[in-house]
Every structure is written in C-alpha cells, then in structure tokens.
Amino acid sequence: MKPYYLLFVFSLLMLSCSTTTTKTEDNTLALEVQQYLDTYTNQYVKLYYDLSLAQWETNTHIVEGDTTNAYRTQVASEAFANFTGSKENIEKTRKYLEQKEKLTPIQVKQLETILYQAANNPQTVAEVVSKRIKAETQQTEKLFGFNYTLDGKPITPNGIDEILREEKNITKRLAAWQASKEVGKNLKAGLVDLRGLRNQTVQALGYKDYFTYQVSEYNMTVPEMMEMNKKLISDIWPLYRELHTYARYELANKYGIKEVPEMLPAHWLPNRWGQDWSAMIDVEGINLDEALAKKEAEWLVKQAERFYISLGFDSLPASFYEKSSLYPAPVEANYKKNNHASAWHMDLQQDVRSLMSVIPNADWYETTHHELGHVYYYMSYTNSEVPPLLRGGANRAFHEAVGSMMGLAAMQKPFLANLGLIEPNTKTDETKELLKEALNYIVFIPFSAGVMTEFEHDLYVNNLPPDQFNKRWWELSQKYQGMVPPAERGEEYTDAASKTHINDDAAQYYDYALSFALLFQLHDHVATTILKQNPKATNYYGNKEVGNFLKKILTPGASRNWRELLKESTGKELNAEAMLNYFQPLMPYLKEANKGRKYTLPEKI
Ligand code: X8Z
Ligand code: ZN
User: Fold this and answer.
1) Buried (b) or exposed (e) across 314-336, using 16+ Cβ within 10 A?
2) CA of 43 to the centre of ligand 2 (A)
C-alpha cells in the first residue's frame, strides 16, 4: 500500500466512528470504493508502465522493416485497453458514481477518470480498439521513419528548419518547404482510417465523436471550446493583421520580390507550418543562435534544469539523463526517431523522460524549457496527496503553459545577460524585441486556435471527406493565417498530416492556444505581483517565491478544478487580456511601419 492510501483509509476509519446509520453506510461504501480504486490503480500503473516502455521504443528506435516494436506496442496496448475498457470496470465505476454524494471528491474524480479512460478503449468494440492501436503505431512509424530528401540527398527536419529560418534564396526555400511536405502523401490513408477508428471507439461509450471526447476533458462542450478559441483569435486579430501586413512587405523586400503578394506564400515563412515567424527578426545585440552555437547541446538541457532548480525545484533524477533520448539520431544511423519534442511520465511515479532532438540553437533552447516544464509538473504531482489516476495537469493547457512560460522568461534580456548569453550592457531596440516575441506568440494563435482546431473539428465532428482534406487545410490557412501554398496543392498531398499532432496527438491542439493565453496570465502575475518587474524584462532566476507560486499550481495535479485554481492563482478567468497588454505597445509602431501599405486581411474575423 502506498502512503497516501494509508492516510486516506485512516481518515475514513476516523469518520466511521460517527453514530448515525447513514454515515456508517456512506463510510462502508467509501471504503469499498477505496479498495476498488486501490486494486484498479495497482494494475493500471503496471499496465501503463508496460505500455509507456513499448511506446518509448516505438518512438525512439524506428528501424525500417523491423516489426519488433510494433508487435510489443500492440501487445502492451491491448493489455492496457482490455483492462481500462473492461465491462467490469465500466459497470462498477458507473454503479459507484450513481452514489457519488456518499464519496469523497477525490474518489469521484478518480472514478470519472476511470470512465473517461474506458471510453477510449471499450471492450464492447475490442476489435475496433485493436485496429486503432495498430493504425496508430503504423502512422507514427511512417511519420517519423520518413526519409526527407532535398536535391536527392537525405536531410533531417532540423536541417530543413534551418534553411527555412535562414535561406534568402527563394528557389532554395521553395525546395526545402516542398521537401518538408512530402511526408504527408504517405499518411493520408492512415489518417482516414484513424479518424474512423477514433470516432468509433469513443462512440461506443456515448461520445458523439473523438473531438467531443477530447474536449470533454475540460468539462466543456464543443461549441464552448470553439467559442473560446474564436474569441482568442478575434481578440488578437487587429495585432495579427498588422503583423501580417508587415511580414508581407518585409519578406518581399528580403527576398528581392517586387510585387508584394496579397497572402503570404507558405515557403516565405521561417517555419514549416507558418506557426512561428520570430526568426524573421534579428535584434541587434541579441543573437541567441550565434551565442548558443558555441555551447554543446547538453548545455541547453542542463541550463533549463538549472533554471528550475534555481526556483527551488529538485534536480532531475539521474535516470532522466540515463533514459531520455535528448539528441538527434545521426543521419547515418540505422534507426530513426520521433523528431518532435515530448515529455513522458513513464510509470506515473519516478521514471520521467524527455524525447527531443536538441541542437544548440534558440528554438531548442526554448523547447528544452518547455519540455522540462512537463517533467517538473510530473515530479510535482507525484506526491502522496495525488493518487496516480489524478497525476495530470489541472487541464491539458496548464501542462503546456508551464514550460512555455519558462521558455518566455528564459528569452528575456535581463535573464540572458545573467547567463552571459548577451553582453550585460548591450543597448537593444526594445520594440524590435517585442516584435520578435509577437511573431512567435501572437502569430501562433490563428494557427492553433484557428487552422488546427477547426481542421480537426471538421475531421472528427463533420467527417470531412478525404477528397477535401487538403482543400480544407488551405482554406483555413488562408482564412486564419493569411497564408497560401506556393502553388496549387491537390489532394495527392495531405499537408495537414505533415504536422505531428494531427497524427499522434489528435483533437487536442487547442491546448496550445489556451496555454499561450494562460502563460501570459501566469507570467503577468509573476512579474507584477511577485517580482515587481516589468513583464517584458524579467529575471525569475533564483527566485524561490516564483517557485512556490508555481508549485502551488503544479502540486495538486488534476485533483483540483482548473477554473478555481486559475482564479485562485491569478484572480482571473482564462482570457487573452494579459497577452494583449503585453503586446499593445507594438500597435502604434506597426501602424506607422505599415503606413501606405495595403492590408489584405479583413478588419474583423
Ligand atoms: O508540440 C509542442 C511541444 C510538445 S509538448 C514541443 N508544441 C507545439 C508545436 O510544436 O506545435 C509547443 C508549442 C506548440
Ligand atoms: Zn508540451
């Protein structure tokens, strides 16, 4: 028995001394439920760990033609699905939940978690579940086993990203962008299959579709979630419209193109999906790519760890460094790995890992902070008060927000100076710095809250026909990002599927949109209330009060209601106000810069 159960049973026994009969009955039920939860959790953690280990191999060691990992993942997934989706567990849990007023809130939350998990794997549709598992593994292997080539030579995604960030020759840019999208062609059939299978599995337990299922984890309906995302977009739209106009003209100039296009050609932007344009701007005096090029990749990970430690968090366990997969697979290696960044809570206990392809540049510097945010979240809620079933974020957006906030903080000037990554007395252009940040944080919103969220909504809720995948993707890109493909992209391509999350993190991308709004709320609170520093020029380093503020949010995991937690921590509801305030000074600057330029996005969306 784990210590938290002992504590819990003890307190129940104390309660059971009460004399009224109903109380005694209640306590008997609560004890029975606790016993059930204990047994369930024991088995759950074991199967969860087996599955994580198998999936870890599938994502870190992809060898063409080798089916060992796929087989192992299939076996572990089926064992996990058979248990979590079993009729017995579903019926028992439902029965207990019918009497939820007799149970403690934390018991109710765990039972709800059990039912939620069951809906992903109901035994009644075991065959569908098994097919879905197979299709998921196949899709991951196709996506990350893909051999990217440019001019007939192999190239890594990091290599493509570098070209898109730095190359000024438009023909070379086009070739790199096209190379980055080839992978999608091969993923369409799998995505069609997965859409059907994902929908069918959750429908068996009464959810309308997979998107509705994922949204329900926030205790929200789909219209509520779509509304929240739309509001984020309309709030930042005036600023985005300025950035869009600015980027069209500045990039045309940079590439030596006379006629400024109405919409941004996708291959002009310094990111494969146009989700982050910050590499467009060089701020004199702050050249992070150059400063980091002098460091080893390992320094970036260790530095992110040092930042968390400085706030009062523990060191990462030795096993983190032994077991993680932090650096890219060499081009000549006989295996490939998932090239997107992720963090893993393997056993819901102490085995925490990260999967990255860190090279010493500014993007990865930010990403190491992001991933360690997940890892420190895991470590914080792995405590005796939070049962394994509730070891998750207050909601999924909280999980994404923490590390992104630390990434933002780690990019600010006083912090960089403190680290010696820039000269302490450098005079920099603050407006340019702010512009660079807006090209990251503001630009991301139309992509995440608009393109990704609506595409997946249409995919799962509206059963978007496969012969419209690419058409819809580009319609949305044009509407929200003001971005168009370099040339007609027919349905032989599936450009949406070149984005990792469409394949392996389905129907959840609004997490990131919400997390950006949230991170500015948290950052604003930290800067103004705790540090009493300008939110645009903070240095959190070494501040234990900031650490304590964060720990208060992280430690309860999913045992707290997220709306209450947010209100308690910041006094506010989730909204874009802090983010807007942060970037407001850019408006007059951009309006001036855009004087006489033609705006091609509508004033309102
Ligand atoms: O996927 C991620 C993280 C993984 S946990 C690196 N992010 C989104 C993306 O890359 O598309 C972080 C922000 C956006
Ligand atoms: Zn993340």
Assistant:
1) eebeeebeebbbbbbbeeeeeeb
2) 27
Average pLDDT value for residue range 25-41: 95
Asked if residue 234 has its Cβ within 6 Å of ligand 1, the reply is no
Sequence length of the chain is 605
- CA 400 / ligand 2 centre spacing (Å): 5
| CB 505 near ligand 1, within 6 Å | no
The answer to whether the beta carbons of residues 239 and 587 sit under 8 Å apart is yes
Helix (H, G, I), strand (E, B) or coil at 486: coil
Residue identified by tokens 């964060």 is 550
Ligand 1 atom 6: the closest Cα is on which residue?
A: 341
Query: Does the pTM of the predicted model rise above 0.85?
Result: yes
Could you tell me the distance, in angstroms and rounded to a whole number, from the CA of residue 171 to the centre of ligand 1? 28
Please report, as a single letter, which amino acid is at residue 492. Answer: E
Tens of pLDDT, residue by residue over 255-311, are: 999 999 999 999 999 999 999 999 999 999 999 999 999 999 999 999 999 999 999
Cβ 181 under 6 angstroms from ligand 1 = no
Q: Tell me if 370 CB under 6 Å of ligand 1.
A: yes
Does the C-beta of 512 come closer than 6 Å to ligand 1?
yes
**For 281, phi and psi rounded to 5 degrees?**
-110, 130
Q: Residue 268: CB partners within 8 Å, gap ≥ 6?
A: 170, 173, 251, 255
**CA 210 → CA 196, 202, 214, 395, 494, distances in Å?**
9, 6, 6, 18, 20
How does pLDDT run across 224-255, given as a tens digit for each residue? 999 999 999 999 999 999 999 999 999 999 99
Question: What pLDDT sits at residue 332?
Answer: 85
